[in-house]
Design goal:
324 residues; 14-stranded antiparallel β-barrel; 15 strands; 50% strand; PorP/SprF_Bacteroidetes; 6% helix; Type IX secretion system membrane protein PorP/SprF; mainly beta
Length: 324
């Protein structure tokens, strides 16, 4: 039987779900934030991939705004087998200034995971009587009990007021999934970055006004598959629009799947609402129906306090990543 290759769930709004992308993003964009995300991938497929995620982070004011804490909860469900995976992780990040222009954040994440298969909607031959009626439980052995595991991840973000470079590794300990012998969750490596060009930059008298565009790029490797993404975000506060081209290669024998994700987001005070839709550009991705994704964030950032700290050189550049 040929081996199957795949990756962990990925989001079309990686900066709204940035704690999932890299634990070092914890505390970089806001004083605190709470984000709820929902992704319905391949809706035309029986047993579509559905992911629900909740994330929160808090930048500690003392001592020196060096420390940040985060929480990430993820729930995946897919397939006619009702395969589910639940993960809950605690995150710690440390921020430090390297030079007057550049700062560095390092993060650690430890997650508890549990995955299982439900056979409640399965029908076996010994449950079907001669007249076609169904009765009684099956005598078939169900040999796949729930699996519990620990996953460890880390990452770094080097950034200035206009650029950032992110490197993250997840499942570094490659925990055993236990569904069959030698079955492991493969390590995931992600390298990404971007640069923000300002047409109107926030400043004194216009702290919330911004017009900018930001090209981004990302490369993800996990197991035998890889994913390349290039995109651009345009912001005219409070609206952000983005387009991301994604090329997914699942091995030399499978034709790469190409997707274009269209992203729209709006910020209203402490609220951010984002929506994205994946448009399939390859025959298979078109037939599966793309993906819908919605994010809702509640956040806080004290711009006046941040400006004061910048004058006193007591804090770090604000990471320029898009919010969606």
């Amino acid at each position: 039987m040929p081996a199957a290759q795949a990756q962990d769930v990925y989001f079309s709004q990686p900066f709204a779900t940035r704690l999932h992308t890299n634990p070092a993003f914890t505390g970089l964009l806001d004083d605190y934030s709470a984000t709820f995300s929902y992704r319905n991938q391949y809706p035309f497929l029986a047993g579509a991939f559905r992911t629900t995620q909740a994330a929160a982070d808090l930048r500690l004011d003392r001592p020196g705004q060096h420390h940040a804490l985060g929480l990430l909860i993820n729930h995946d469900r897919t397939g006619s087998l009702s395969y589910t995976r639940f993960e809950a992780g605690a995150i710690y990040a440390y921020h430090t200034r390297l030079t007057r222009q550049f700062a560095l954040s390092g993060g650690l994440r430890a997650s508890y995971g549990r995955q299982q298969i439900s056979y409640g909607n399965f029908l076996f031959g010994d449950q079907i009587s001669e007249d076609g009626t169904v009765s009684g439980p099956s005598a078939e052995p169900l040999t796949f009990p729930a699996v519990n595991y620990l996953s460890l991840g880390t990452g770094f973000v080097l950034y200035s007021e206009q650029a950032w470079l992110s490197l993250a590794g997840q499942h570094l300990n490659q925990p055993s999934l236990g569904f069959r012998q030698q079955s492991k969750l493969p390590m995931l490596l992600n390298l990404s970055g971007g640069y923000k060009f300002y047409l109107l930059k926030p400043g004194p008298g216009k702290p919330t006004q911004e017009i900018s565009f930001t090209p981004t790029a990302s490369f993800t490797l996990q197991g035998g598959s890889h994913r390349i993404e290039t995109g651009v975000y345009a912001m005219a506060s409070p609206v952000t629009l983005g387009a991301v081209f994604r090329n997914i290669s699942l091995g030399s024998t499978v034709e790469p799947q190409q997707v274009l994700a269209a992203i729209a987001g709006i910020a209203a005070g402490p609220l951010r609402l984002g929506y994205s839709y994946d448009i399939g550009l390859s025959p298979l991705s078109q037939e599966l129906g793309g993906a819908h994704e919605v994010t809702l964030s509640l956040c806080s950032f004290d711009r006046l306090e941040n400006a004061y700290r910048r004058l006193k050189r007591r804090n770090y550049p604000l990471a320029p990543c898009p919010a969606f």
